[in-house]
Amino acid sequence: MNLETINQLLGVTESYQAPEKMLELMLDDKKRPETFDAFLKQETDMSYEWFQSYFEDEHSDRKKKKQDFTPSSVSNLLAQLGGGGNSYFEAAAGTGGIMIQSWNQNKNSNSWYQVEELSERSIPFLIFNMAIRGMSGVVLRGDSLTGKFEEAYQISNKGKYSDVRPILTTIETNKFGSVLMNPPFSASWPADKNYLEDERFTGYNALAPKSKADYAFLLHGFHHLGDGGTMAIVLPHGVLFRGNAEGKIRKALLENGAIEAVIGLPSKLFTNTDIPTTILVLRKNRLNKDVLFIDASKEFEKGKNTNLLKQDHINKIIDTCNKRKNVDKFAHVASFEEIKENDFNLNIPRYVDTFEEEKQIDMLQVAKDLQSINKEIKESEQAFVKMMDDLQVTEENKEWIELTKEMLLEN
Predict the structure, then answer these.
(1) Which of 39, 47, 208, 242 is the most buried (most CB within 10 A)?
(2) Cβ atoms 320, 331 nearer than 8 A
(3) Nearest Cα to 78, choosing from 182, 186, 177, 176?
(4) What is the pLDDT of residues 93-133, one digit of tens each?
(5) 332's torsion region: left (phi>0), alpha (psi -120 to 50) or beta?
(6) CA 177-178-184 angle, 5° bins
(7) CA within 13 Å, CB half, 116
(8) What secondary structure letter does DSSP report for 197?
(9) Comparing C-alpha atoms, which of 67, 103, 68, 96 is closest to residue 82?
(10) Which domains does the chain have, with CATH numbers?
C-alpha cells in the first residue's frame, strides 16, 4: 500500500499528519470500524505490515534513534523460532511487523499481546495493526528500559475488529510464552547503578554499558519470558564476544543454560545498516547448557540494495534448529565445556568452521593456457600487419605504418 493511498484513506494531505489522525480514528468507536473497512477494500492480505515502507520513508531516523525496521523475512524467522503459545511480548515493537508475523502463523483468538514502543508516531499504527486483526492485549508507550510509560491502551477483541480504550499505565508484569524482539542496535540508556536492584537485571553481576543497551533489552525481554516459553531477539554480533560488563552478563546466561541457540544472519538484510546481525534464542529452566551455533551468513539472495532472506533459507535454519545436530560448515552443537574453554566467547567462527580449501592450481594447464594466448596474439599481430599492407600509403601515414609494422614484426 503506497504512501498516497494511506494518506487518502486517513484524510490527510501530508504524511506528518498521519499518526495524530490515525490515533484520533482509533479512539472513535464509530470511525474506527469504518477506517478498517476502507483499508480492507484496498488490501485484504493481512499477513504482513502495510505501513513499513511508508514509515521507513517518512519517519525513520537511523542516525539519531538507531531505528531499523525489521525486514518481513526476519520477522517471519523470529515468529517461527518463537513458536506458538497463548501470550506474546515485545519491546521496541515499532509498528508491529514481528507481532503480525507471529499472529499470522498462529491466529489464536485467545492469545494476549503486550507490546511496548517508545515512538509516539509509531503507536497509532501499532494500535491499528492490532485492532484490525481482532487481537487482544495492551499497548504501552514509553521507555521499556527505564519502565517509564506515558500512555497505555487496552485492545479487546469484539469479533471481527477490536475495541481500543486508553487505560492507566500501571501494568502488572506478566510472563509470556513468546518473546520476540528487534531492539535498536547499541542504543544508549541510563545504566544507573540503582538498576542493579531491578529484578530484571539482578543476578548478572553487571549492567549493560550506557552506550550499548543490547543486553539491557535482552534481559528486559527475558524477564518477561515464562517457563516453557521461547525468546528470540535480533542483536549486533558484538554481544557475542564483547567483554567487561557484557562478558559477565553473557557468562551468567550461559551458566544458567538460558542461551539455546546463536544464529548468524547475512549482512545487508536491513535497509539502514549493512552490519551483520545475530539472533539469540533463549529459554528458561533448560536441562542442558549446550548451545546450537548456526552460520547462515551465506543464506541469502542478492537484491538491488539489500540481501534477501528467502523462504528456503528460513526453512533450512528452522529445520536445523529443530534437529539440533551438527551440519558441516553450517551448524555445530557446542557443549558447555567447549564454550567455557572459549572463555564464554560466542563468536560463531569459533564453533562453525566455514573455511573452503582453495583448489590446487594446475601449473601445467596454466603454461598451456599461456602458450595458447601467445599463439593467438601472434596470429592477431600477423593479421594486423597484413591489413596494413593493404592500406594506401601516403606522406601523412607512411611513417607510422612503417614504425608499427617494425614493432609488430620484432615481436
Answers:
(1) 208
(2) yes
(3) 182
(4) 999 999 999 999 888 878 999 999 999 999 999 999 999 99
(5) beta
(6) 145
(7) 25
(8) G
(9) 103
(10) 3-350 (3.40.50.150), 365-410 (no CATH)
Cell 547503578, located at residue: 193
Interatomic CA distance for residues 165 and 296, integer angstroms:
43
User: How many residues are listed for the chain in this entry?
Assistant: 411
**pLDDT tens for residues 262-317?**
999 998 898 777 788 999 999 999 999 999 999 999 998 888 888 889 999 999 99
Give dist(CA 103, CA 133) in Å, integer.
Answer: 9
Angle, alpha carbons 167-173-176 (nearest 5°): 110
Cell of residue 150, nine digits = 506515558
Helices vs. strands in the chain: H and E counts, helices first: 14, 13
Are residues 77 and 35 in contact, defined by beta-carbon separation less than 8 angstroms? no
Question: pTM here?
Answer: 0.84
Pair 256, 227: CB distance under 8 Å: no
Among 207, 210, 204, which Cα is nearest to 193's?
207
